[in-house]
Recover the amino acids of this structure.
């Protein structure tokens, strides 16, 4: 516990902005802070405050608060766990496929949508508890992206892996503030995010509406997912030159000046 009168003298209490500006505006002065949880990304405290006319917390109040601390810690654990369960339930119900892996591609979490994605042929699968891409090149790139996302000391970076045309899985550093990171005790992990399904029927509708070829419609959908033309080329198994030709034709047919404009156009048509 942290008692202000044990750390600050009377002069500090009279001059420190937290007392003269903040606490004074609330009609409070003396305070005690009780730590309830010390997490990797956040801490929980409960504070007790006294009116300016009251004396600092005495031995009797300190003893009473000390008796209450174990009960407050237990109550906070229950509150925090309930929040975690609610957040995980929301993630489990997302239509967006999510998975968490460590630097060795070992699976630590996946939601229901990710289970369905892993069951689909031609993409990522689960082998001996680790993610595996059916294509050797994609597997190598996946391992590199995950290792980069799990980098320490500010070196963590995001990436994208074309796993099965036209699907590209985005690989992100799992931030300490993410709900799924709380149970991993601060160790570096990667968050894998599958794009929402952009099926052939949807591509056909976009192509029909905008007068695009099949390849151009698939490129438009991938741009709307946040992918690049290079990633489209890898996913489609075509050359960079061919992909650039599709991109040029796509801009011309849609009247857009930039690829981001195409992405916004498709998102608007899709109701995203």
């Amino acid at each position: 516990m942290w008692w202000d009168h044990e750390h600050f003298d009377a002069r500090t209490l009279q001059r420190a902005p937290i007392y003269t500006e903040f606490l004074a505006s609330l009609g409070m002065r003396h305070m005690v802070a009780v730590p309830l949880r010390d997490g990797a990304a956040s801490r929980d405290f409960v504070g007790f405050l006294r009116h300016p006319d009251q004396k600092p917390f005495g031995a009797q109040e300190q003893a009473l608060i000390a008796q209450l601390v174990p009960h407050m810690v237990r109550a906070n654990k229950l509150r925090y766990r309930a929040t975690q369960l609610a957040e995980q339930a929301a993630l489990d119900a997302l239509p967006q496929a999510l998975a968490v892996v460590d630097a060795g591609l070992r699976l630590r979490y996946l939601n229901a949508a990710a289970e369905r994605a892993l069951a689909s042929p031609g993409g990522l699968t689960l082998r001996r508890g680790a993610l595996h891409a059916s294509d050797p090149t994609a597997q190598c790139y996946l391992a590199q992206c995950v290792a980069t996302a799990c980098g320490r000391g500010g070196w963590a970076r995001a990436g994208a892996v074309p796993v099965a045309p036209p699907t590209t899985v985005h690989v992100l550093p799992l931030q300490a503030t993410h709900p799924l990171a709380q149970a991993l005790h601060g160790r570096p992990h990667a968050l894998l995010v599958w794009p929402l399904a952009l099926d052939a029927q949807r591509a056909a509708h976009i192509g029909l509406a905008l007068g695009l070829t099949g390849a151009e419609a698939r490129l438009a959908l991938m741009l709307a997912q946040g992918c690049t033309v290079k990633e489209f080329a890898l996913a489609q198994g075509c050359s960079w030159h061919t992909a650039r030709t599709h991109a040029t034709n796509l801009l011309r047919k849609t009247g857009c000046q930039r690829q981001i404009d195409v992405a916004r156009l498709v998102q608007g048509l899709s109701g995203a």
User: Anything to note?
Assistant: Residues 2-90 form one domain.
